[in-house]
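ok new one. same drill as before - structure tokens go in, u give me an amino acid for every spot. 456 of them this time. try not to just spam alanines like last time pls lmao
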């Protein structure tokens, strides 16, 4: 059995403070790399005047990391451009925000070629390669062009869009054809897998059999759904750490007898934050008796500040939260606490446990691990209630949550009220079933199922 080579846009290996600073995905990938004596390859995050392809090799917590610098033009066209202004909004059904510029697609192709150029000398004959996410859709094609014959798998962490959307992308057939140079293509959900299969049949004139073997463009690959999970055991342990206990105690002390509704998201238009704020406003309007008995804490971590759409959503959220607070607040009560900062995962675990409602209502999401983290952090004796968007990939697995249409203010508001008034026995029953799923279908199960399928 050869080494595992993981390729991603950015590399985030665990260090000494892994529980607090590194996500469960990075930890699971690192564990796989240790098991298979592998390499994690990706962009360093740094830019230089001229691309040299020179690698920086590091060793962190038993994992070998290979990093390459890009040019500033690469960052602007490949990362800020095609990845985050073309593919990201398109794959999240925001065609109104998609930017189609030839320089973006050229930069995207150029960086994928540079990744392949730099990675190829590291590959040994019996290695198998696992490529992560939408930044690197054509990487297998570039590697095949350089003579790499190894098994190569791809996993898409975001949704695959419906055929009518993907066909609005210039040269969409060329992009999809490049995916057929992978041996295995993994999606988060059956819905995304089926959307890809529909494209293969209806747009590419290909075929899909019951085993997930797909044929088009004169090539054959295999597709499957591999829903990602969290490191549940580690997250439960983190929720009982000293940092988590402090965060829990501080948060509970701030409640002053009130109940807390919690949202935790990266600041992104796909997360439905504005719609969530308006649904909470609807709840306060529909249930005036709940005013001053509840508040909503939204943690929104800033991201991609250079992209105009992200600047816009931040401004809109500040305006909406300010308006709602102005309309409903009293001298000793603010209905929305809106926080723009990042927290350590162990601190978040304590905040999750203090919340009576976990409000996870993205407008479109590949999976959404916040929903699973919220469940894992709960007190089994007195668990909170998860309100979950039907458009999050997690909804396929987490049916015992209160499933809502995130575009319906009334539906989300009604779910908040139901969650706040839910009897303890029902909360425990729903949480037990949800937690069983989170524990069983964890990140290790996801990793192992994909790697084993790729090896087969």
């Amino acid at each position: 059995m050869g080494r595992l080579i993981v390729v991603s846009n950015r590399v985030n290996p665990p260090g000494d403070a892994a529980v607090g600073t590194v996500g469960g995905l990075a930890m699971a990938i690192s564990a796989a790399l240790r098991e298979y004596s592998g390499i994690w390859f990706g962009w360093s995050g740094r830019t230089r005047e001229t691309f040299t392809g020179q690698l920086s090799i590091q060793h962190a917590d038993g994992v070998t990391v290979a990093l390459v610098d890009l040019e500033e033009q690469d960052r602007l066209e490949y990362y800020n451009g095609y990845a985050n202004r073309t593919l990201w909004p398109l794959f999240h059904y925001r065609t109104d925000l998609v930017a189609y510029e030839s320089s973006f697609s050229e930069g995207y192709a150029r960086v994928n070629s540079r990744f392949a150029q730099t990675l190829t000398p590291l590959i040994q004959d019996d290695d198998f390669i696992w490529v992560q996410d939408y930044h690197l859709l054509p990487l297998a094609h570039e590697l095949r062009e350089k003579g790499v014959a190894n098994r190569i798998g791809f996993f898409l962490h975001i949704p695959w869009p419906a055929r009518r959307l993907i066909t609005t992308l210039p040269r969409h057939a060329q992009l999809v054809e490049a995916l057929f140079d992978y041996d295995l293509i993994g999606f988060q959900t059956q819905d995304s897998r089926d959307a890809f299969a529909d494209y293969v049949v209806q747009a590419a004139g290909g075929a899909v059999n019951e085993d997930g073997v797909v044929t088009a463009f004169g090539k054959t690959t295999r597709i499957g759904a591999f829903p990602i999970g969290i490191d549940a055991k580690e997250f439960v342990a983190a929720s009982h750490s000293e940092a988590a206990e402090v965060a829990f105690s501080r948060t509970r002390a701030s409640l002053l007898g009130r109940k807390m509704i919690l949202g935790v998201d990266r600041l992104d238009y796909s997360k439905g934050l504005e719609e969530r704020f308006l649904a909470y406003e609807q709840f306060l309007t529909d249930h005036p008796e709940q005013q001053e008995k509840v508040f909503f804490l939204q943690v929104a971590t800033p991201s991609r500040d250079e992209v105009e759409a992200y600047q816009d959503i931040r401004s809109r959220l500040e305006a909406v939260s300010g308006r709602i607070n102005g309309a409903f607040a009293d001298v000793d009560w603010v209905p929305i606490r809106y926080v723009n900062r990042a927290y350590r995962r162990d601190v978040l675990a304590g905040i999750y446990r203090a919340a009576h409602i976990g409000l996870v209502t993205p407008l479109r999401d590949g999976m959404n691990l916040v929903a699973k983290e919220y469940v894992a952090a709960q007190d089994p004796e007195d668990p909170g209630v998860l309100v979950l968007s039907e458009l999050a990939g997690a909804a396929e697995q987490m049916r015992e949550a209160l499933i809502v249409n995130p575009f319906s203010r009334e539906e989300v508001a009604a779910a908040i009220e139901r969650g706040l008034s839910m009897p303890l026995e029902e909360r425990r029953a729903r949480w037990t079933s949800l937690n069983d799923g989170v524990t069983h279908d964890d990140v290790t199960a996801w990793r192992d199922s994909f790697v084993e399928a790729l090896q087969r």
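The first strand starts at residue 4 and ends at 10. and btw Confidence is low (pLDDT under 50) at residues 16-21.
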